[in-house]
Amino acid sequence: MGLISAEEYKASLDDGRIVYYKGEKIKNVVRDPNLGVCVDVMAIDYEMAANPKYRDLAVVEDPENGEPISRYYYKPQNADDLLKAHELIVKATELGSGYIPLAHDIGADALNAINITANMIGNQDYIDRIDNYRKELQQKDLATCAGVTCVKGDRMLRPSDPGQAHPDSYVRVVDKNDKGIIVRGAKMHITGAAYCNDIFVIPCRAMSEADKDYAVAFAIPVNTKGLTQVCRPFTSHISDLEFPNTNPVRVHTDSVIIFDDVLVPWERVFMCGEWKYAAPLVYNFALMHRRTGCAYRIPLSEQFLGAASAIAEYNGILDAPHVKEKLTDLIIYLETLKSLSKTACYDFVMRSGVAVPNPIATNMAKYHFAHNYHEVVKTVQDLAGGIVVTAPTYKDYQHPELHDYLEKYLQGDKNVPTENRLRMIDLIRRITRAELETICLHGEGSPMAERMTIFMEGREVLKECQIIVEEMAQVKR
Ligand SMILES: Cc1cc2nc3c(=O)[nH]c(=O)nc-3n(C[C@H](O)[C@H](O)[C@H](O)COP(=O)(O)OP(=O)(O)OC[C@H]3O[C@@H](n4cnc5c(N)ncnc54)[C@H](O)[C@@H]3O)c2cc1C
After folding, report:
1. Ligand 1 close to Cβ of residue 445 (< 6 A)
2. For residue 445, how far is its CA from the centre of ligand 1 (angstroms)?
3. CB–CB of 19/32 below 8 Å?
4. Is the CB of residue 115 less than 8 Å from the CB of residue 351?
5. In terms of DSSP bridges, do strands 254-265 and 180-191 run parallel, antiparallel, or are they unpaired?
6. Backbone torsions φ then ψ of 385, nearest 5 degrees
7. What pLDDT is attached to residue 88?
8. Which of 165, 192, 231, 348 has its CA 20 to 30 A from that of 465?
9. Does the C-beta of 442 come closer than 6 Å to ligand 1?
């Protein structure tokens, strides 16, 4: 089959999955007025593959039989493959007005990380299982997500530490039988899980021998018995207090996923007890997913720059020296992100037959993005002024007794209609909202995780530089 349509993807979600939203059990996520909005975002991936304009980017030929398959599930072999995947995610996020569709990209990062780790372990069953699963994903074009982050309990304690409130703070194997393994525990923050087909589950940290039951990786359909999801609340519609906008609202939700003694068949188990390989698995996932995450943030960074420039013009301050400096900072922010993301692809490394983005460049790109994000938001809010939080609503603006006053007094530059200024303020309020701040900081890993990786990967460079200066100083060892 190879590729499915957006309609086929939507029809596949009516499968008895257990999903709660705001205290209600949702019968059908597609027909739900809130979750249906998220489903439409995911469907963009399928629409892109069907659209001749994006087909070259979104679709590749299966190397084995020449059939069209999603680029996401194709195993990257070189810099060009990585760059094309990067461009695909940037374009998809643009079409999602800053929200990545997510039907395949996070799952693909987990798929490739498991592929590498199975080869590192050297277990032929695992290698065959992940290869077979890749083929199935390619043929059925399933939407996948990645359950990495466990609920974790006390962060300073290991998963198996008796000091944890209970032994299930990290997903673990509680039993095995001839059919498969039984898993218990909970993952948290899992984006898109409520409206994808299958979920990858991998550990979220390094494990010790005592933690070997927690060193488990697998993939299962989200309607598997014993799996329950609770979605976080989100705003799915533009309120009638805001200026009307015919662009569809784009948003995702993230789930707490409870695994209540779930049976995972052996053919979908990719790690079970090989505790030494939990760290390489999560490391490789994080590496690939941070590169993916940087691609998500490029369109958002472009929105910040555009909004800052527009509102500076509407407020009449575009030529002020400090404004030019602030806009320069935003250009540097955006272009640094773009350059580091591309460098990560050009300067790739091969791991077990998979082209992987450069570890230092990738982590620097993600760290640069997250670390400076709040500064960028501050700049946009600074240039916009306090009106971002104090502007009257669209209903006030429309009111016959208020309209002319507001039209007169809320104008900035005389060449810009007041309504344009107020519309831009609405947009700035939406793109600088607190929810996005947390996503940008913690999504793909906290800033400390990126710094630790940069230090670890940078040790070679550090050693080489030390040798150079020791030679200069004629230090004898
Ligand atoms: C919107 C959103 C979407 C996400 N989507 C996904 C997804 O699809 N799949 C997925 O698997 N995950 C997802 N995540 C999870 C994301 O990767 C985590 O938020 C991130 O790894 C941080 O983990 P945490 O939120 O549990 O924070 P915590 O681990 O609670 O971290 C909080 C603070 O504690 C510090 N800390 C934690 N542990 C230690 C320690 N042992 N020692 C010292 N300091 C410590 C951290 O550095 C940080 O400063 C998403 C997150 C967000 C916000």
Report:
1. yes
2. 6
3. no
4. no
5. antiparallel
6. 90, 175
7. 97
8. 348
9. yes
Domains of the chain and CATH, by start: 279-467 (1.20.140.10)
Which burial class, exposed, middle or buried, applies to 477 when counting CB atoms under 10 A from its CB (0-12, 13-18, 19+)? exposed
Residue labelled with tokens 């404004």? 323
Residue of minimum CA distance from atom 29 in ligand 1? 155
Cα 148 to middle of ligand 1, angstroms: 10
Q: How far is 12 from 30, CA to CA, in rounded Å?
A: 10
Residues 303 and 297 sit within 8 Å (Cβ to Cβ): no
By most ligand atoms within 8 Å of CB, the mutation choice from 207, 231, 442, 451 for ligand 1 is: 442
CA distances, 51 to each of 55, 56, 222 (Å) = 6, 10, 28
User: Using a 6 Å cutoff on CB, does residue 446 contact ligand 1?
Assistant: yes
**Distance in Å, CA 301 to ligand 1 centroid:** 22
Q: Whose alpha carbon is nearest atom 25 of ligand 1?
A: 442
Closest C-alpha to ligand 1, atom 20:
445
**Are 148 and 290 in contact, with CB atoms under 8 Å apart?**
no
Name the stretches of the chain with pLDDT < 50: none
- The per-residue pLDDT for 246 is 85
Structure letter (DSSP) for residue 226 = T
475 three-state secondary structure = coil
Q: Which DSSP string do the residues of 71-108 spell out, in sequence order?
A: GGGS---SHHHHHHHHHHHHHHHHHTTT----SSHHHH
Query: What are the tokens at 458?
Result: 């940078």
Residue 78: exposed, middle, or buried by beta-carbon count in 10 A (0-12, 13-18, 19+)? exposed
DSSP for 29-78?
TTTSTTHHHHHHHHHHHHHHHHSTTTHHHHEEE-TTT--EEEGGGS---S
DSSP string, 266-304: GGGEEEES-GGGHHHHHHHHHHHHHHHHHHHHHHHHHHH
